[in-house]
Design goal:
Elements (H helix, E strand, L loop, with lengths): L8 H12 L2 H8 L3 H15 L4 E4 L2 E4 L1 H21 L12 E7 L1 H18 L3 E7 L8 H6 L3 E5 L8 E7 L1 E6 L11 H6 L1 E5 L5 H9 L5 E6 L5 H5 L5 E5 H11 L1 E4 L8 E6 L8 H15 L9
Parallel strand pairs: 3-4, 3-5, 8-9, 8-10
Antiparallel strand pairs: 1-2, 5-12, 6-12, 7-10, 7-11
């Protein structure tokens, strides 16, 4: 395909048409007349050799290809917007801009809050928007990174993209403050017999893989799509949970739980800020990365870390 022959304005029209599913509303959204938007739809239909929008009764529905293009057009639009908004210089005290970062609730609580405070102090016109990392992050890393400014995620999940290391953490276990069967130390037998609360996504995969290598198969009683919920699901029960120590220390005072070290040498956790290569030389993104690194450098070490 010869991209030089394509009108990039069609990306704007395509996104509006697929999302609105109405020529008139799509035109109003992007500032085109109804005839002009109809002409754009005709050009898109010729290019894709597909109707994209098919009339069903008194309204339009997306064709199979139109459904496929719905997400792709949004991603392409976001990528083009970020590409053409790249800057040679960036003054954080004067600029107004939003940075979107994908992150787990753990990363937002432990690092995102600190980053937001630092950004507020030095760049009052800059906004941060944290969104939950999609479950497809491993399979669609490039696609997701192209539509965001970055991803907060530990090493060991994704690779082959630029990243700035931020801080280290460790895996620990949580048990109820008054757990009847656990003393001051956990044993591997405890891990095998006690019911578990687990995080149901893949972000703790290296730690979970290590358990399997040690022959420990968790008896999962409850799973949640939130790291912050794990201490609350442990308190007052016989359950245990594997969590990051920084988060455990943050929430232990309000969740009636105890923090215990693993009965084995747990794999370390190194959090990083990942981004798409399209952002590498953008002045605004460089400022974001440098700010993140500076905030991380000022974080206190994990209690007991070497």
């Amino acid at each position: 395909m010869n991209l030089a022959r394509l009108d990039l304005n069609l990306v704007v029209a395509l996104r509006a048409l697929l999302e609105e599913r109405n020529v008139t509303r799509a035109g109003q959204r992007v500032g085109l007349s109804q005839p002009a938007m109809s002409a754009a739809l005709s050009r898109l239909r010729r290019h894709f050799d597909d109707d994209l929008l098919a009339r069903t009764g008194g309204h339009y529905e997306l064709t199979a290809l139109g459904q496929v293009l719905l997400d792709r057009s949004t991603t392409a639009y976001d990528l083009l917007e970020r590409l053409f908004s790249s800057q040679a210089s960036f003054d954080p005290t004067q600029e107004k801009r939003e940075f979107r970062l994908m992150a787990s609730d753990y990363a937002v609580a432990v690092f995102g809050a600190e980053l937001a405070r630092a950004v507020h102090a030095s760049a009052p016109g800059i906004r941060l928007r944290f969104t939950q990392t999609p479950t497809t992050v491993v399979d669609e890393t490039g696609l997701l990174l192209s539509a965001a400014d970055g991803l907060l995620m530990p090493h060991g999940i994704i690779s082959d993209y630029p990243a700035t290391d931020l801080y280290e953490d460790r895996w620990v276990f949580l048990v109820a403050e008054d757990h009847p069967d656990v003393g001051d130390h956990l044993t591997r037998k405890d891990l095998a017999l006690l019911p578990w609360v687990t995080y149901q996504r893949t972000y703790d995969a290296p730690a979970v893989r290590q358990l399997g290598m040690l022959g420990i198969e968790p008896n999962v009683e409850v799973s949640a799509d939130s790291f912050l919920a794990l201490p609350l699901l442990v308190a007052g029960t016989r359950r245990i949970a594997l969590v990051q120590e920084r988060l455990a220390r943050l929430l232990a005072p309000v969740a009636a739980v105890r923090v215990l070290q693993p009965p084995y040498e747990a794999v370390p956790l190194r959090e990083a800020l990942w981004w798409h290569p399209v952002h590498t030389h953008d002045a605004a993104h460089i400022w974001l990365r440098e700010t993140a690194a500076r905030v991380a450098a000022g974080m206190a070490p994990v209690p007991g870390a070497q």
